[in-house]
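fyi for ur records
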Amino acid sequence: MKKKKQQKSARPLSRSLRVYQKLSLLFFVFSVLLLLGVLYLSLSQAVIRIAPIPRAISSSIAIDVHQNPGALQVAGEIAEVQLERTKTVTLQGNGTDPVKGRSSGMVFVVNETSGQVDLVANTRVLSDSGILFRLQEAVSVPANDQVEVAVLADEEGEEGDIEPSRFTIPGLPENAQTVVYAISTKAMVGGLRFVRVISQDDLERAEVELTAELLKQGIDELKGTETRDFDDEIFDIEILTRITNAAIGEEASSFDIGLSARIFGVFFDASAFQTQVENGLRLSADDGFELVSIYDDVYRRAIQFVDVQSGVARIAVTVDMLSIITNTNELLNLDQFLGKAPGEVEAILEASEAIESASISFTPFWLKRIPTLRDHIKVVIEGLK
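which gave:
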């Protein structure tokens, strides 16, 4: 039998080859790690979503209207008219200041005798309640008749304001006082009255009312003088002189007041004005905040300055609006978030009065901390365009 050939045994790897294999493996691991690192750096992202708290602010800007407008001016026309008017103001109410006086009224002097009775002026008549009055004129009362005559209380005070009464005439003999007497059918008044005096409020109210009347008249005249090429307008009034015959504290039922005034009208292009207002409001917002809405789109406008001869006016515009935080706000400086845990970042943001809530999402989802690169952090603010 032939002898089987002996199998050749595997030759062991050389030392250099083993080193080469290890280096290759390390290079592969390193490449994988490097790739993972690159993928991490390129794909990792944190999105910070913020629900802001709108902040109510009032902002004022000035818009220039000019008959020959420049780049930042609105085309317009300025006109004026001068007016004057006087009116009589009647005071309302009975007043609040009490003043003592002498009560007065009318009585019927009754004569139940068969002969005429003559009484002189200042004859005393005494009420059942003991209040003394005097006749204001002489009177002759025929037999079995009566005559009406005015009486005045002897003393001041509200005690004289008595209801209808019967009066005796103390100057007559006692037996005649039962057949010659006086009666009243209406109450006596004037012992205490509340007078109406002119107050500072009365004068101010009258001036306000007359100013409104002059302004209305001026507006009608300015709008009616000619056809204008502008579709918006604003008016104002400047009081030149004030005249009144009233004095504060003076008792009166009415007084006269007179005013002279200049009424200005500024006529301008509404669309151009609106554009300038909106641009000005955006620029007037605080750093780090942006205008998001205006309350009811209502502007409070007032003529701040006017020069009719030069054809220029300045209109002050005040607007109540809402603004919210923007990415330029220092509170959203990304450097303070780098490498932090989500809870830390949310706590920082929600501590601000400008932020209601904050939430953070990651890509890939298993990340636990904010990336350390600024451009891998995105801030999204709700309601911000």
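The mean pLDDT is 86. thats all i got for now
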